[in-house]
Amino acid sequence: MSVSSSHDMLLLGRVLRPHGLEGVLRVQSYASSIDSFPEGENLILRKPGGDIREYKVLAVNAHKRFVLMKLEGIDSVETAEKYRSADILVEKQAIPLQEEEFLWEELLGLDVFLATGEQVGRLSQIIPTKGNDIYVIQGEKKEILIPAVHEVIQEIDIEEGKITISPMEGLLDLNEI
């Protein structure tokens, strides 16, 4: 993997600190699954000062609310310490997506329409929750919160730049901000 332009890269997390004495990194993950960290593949560490370095992922493990990651060439606590607060980036195509699974950045900014063709607004924010994500739709005069569930989201068309929804009765009237 070569260091691609920033729009081809995805921010997966941030190095918090070394873990132990053998160069393992404790990572705050921004991904919903540990599977997003490509064991056996390469990733980029970008230090706060902008220095960028590519490493092969040797091992990834979940640990409490964190991810522990061992990278090739980082073999001591001293070397690991140099990457405190570094961003962890991977090429977007390295992330395994299931059918009907999208990256948030692909969804943000999409226009949202009712199944009738009426425009509701634009997806401005995604709020993660334990059960399902909540989409914040910015309309002309108000924000609308809708659950990201199959009963509401009929279709997501990235190429057309739109999301089609079929809201449950009263949904668009009840949850105004």
Task: Report on the architecture of this protein.
This protein is mainly beta and 177 residues long. The chain has 2 domains: 6-94, Beta Barrel (Elongation Factor Tu (Ef-tu), domain 3); 104-172, PRC-barrel domain (SH3 type barrels, Roll). Helices cover 7% and strands 44% of the residues. The protein contains 3 helices and 12 strands; from the N terminus they run βββββαβαββββββα. The strands form 2 sheets. It has a 6-stranded antiparallel β-barrel. It has a 6-stranded mixed sheet with strand order 10-9-8-7-12-11, with no helix packed on it. The mean pLDDT is 87.
Summarize the entry for a quick read.
By secondary structure, the protein is mainly beta. It has helices spanning 77-81, 104-107, 171-174; strands at residues 9-19, 24-29, 42-46, 52-63, 66-71, 87-91, 111-114, 119-127, 134-138, 143-147, 153-157, 162-165.
Total number of beta strands: 12
CATH architecture of the largest domain: Beta Barrel
| Gap from first CA to last CA | 44 Å
Please give the CATH class of the largest domain.
Mainly Beta
Q: Can you write the helix and strand succession as a string? A: EEEEEHEHEEEEEEH
What is the makeup of the main sheet?
Answer: 6 strands, antiparallel, barrel
Fraction of helical residues: under 10%
Percent of residues in beta strands: 35-45%
Task: Report the mean per-residue pLDDT as an integer.
Answer: 87
Assembly classification? single chain
Q: Main sheet: which strands, in order across?
A: 1-2-5-4-3-6
Q: Provide the CATH superfamily of the largest domain.
A: RimM
What is the number of independent domains?
Answer: 2
